[in-house]
Amino acid sequence: MDTIVENNYRRLKLSLFFLPLLLSILIVAFLHQHDALRVDSLIQIQKEWFYYLNGNLSKFPGLQYNFTQLGDAFIFLSLLTIFIVYAPKLWEALISASIISALFSSVLKEIFSVPRPAGILNQETFVIIGRVLPGLTSSLPSGHAITIFTVLTVLMFGFMPQKKRSKILWFVSFIFVGLMLAFTRVAIGAHFPIDVIVGSIVGYISGLAGIFLNRKINIWKWISNKKYYPVFIGLFVIALVVIVVKIMNENLFIFYLVLINLICSLFIIIKSYAKR
User: 67, 75, 89, 172: which has the fewest C-beta neighbours closer than 10 Å?
Assistant: First the structure.
């Protein structure tokens, strides 16, 4: 499995950055054409989209609230811990990509300083699922959307099939799933649509950047060395404690999936370490 991931990453070309960059330019051009590059006009131009999407997607509150948890890096990455043993190359790229995405998220939020829906709209006019997020400067881009697309991009290219038709289907499927997960942020009333779209593009760029950076400067190669497995065993135990606390606070189905996965991953890595 690790060989498949490594070979797939080696085949990637820098031209893959053209699509997200083109989409970014088109979004800026669209906003400029509608005089929506200012915060107030940016919010005004997408209010109808927000109310429409929020009203329709929030009809499945339990599902949306569970899915939106995948925008939490701890939750999503905890579901992939099994790959530390079977595909460490994937995790090498994931770590690099996650660091890049975190930098993008903090810097861009600071630059744009766009308020969240609950911070500027009447909270009684739309559906809020979970806790209220009234941040006045942290809406654009959506950090959850960035995380979702960062992780999915690393996964998508890591396990990309070789046949052209299969590649297209694989790519479209991942983008569809990514957008479905990302737009849960609109469903729960935490972000505007453009926050999510921009976050998705930034996440895709972050995932690719992580892969290329790791291919050039492989600083995480030690992950595949079994002598460092005790470090991961300790991290898995800490993660188990954290997820148990989350379950006690919010009894969500997704947290149980993470719990089961962490227990299985812990068993497998301990067994693998014992056989070294």
Answer: 172
Q: How far apart are CA 184 and CA 180, in angstroms?
A: 7
pLDDT tens digits for range 164-212: 889 999 999 999 999 999 999 999 999 999 999 999 999 999 999 999 9
For residue 234, CA distances in Å to 57, 84, 191, 205, 241 come to: 39, 14, 35, 31, 11
Measured from the Cβ of residue 211, the count of other Cβ atoms closer than 10 Å reads 27
Structure confidence by residue, pLDDT tens digits, 217-248: 888 999 999 999 999 999 999 999 999 999 99
130: left (phi over 0), alpha (psi -120 to 50) or beta: left
Residue 262 near residue 240, CB atoms below 8 Å: yes
- How many CA atoms are closer than 13 Å to the CA of 79, on its beta-carbon side? 17
Q: How many CB atoms lie within 10 A of CB 28?
A: 12
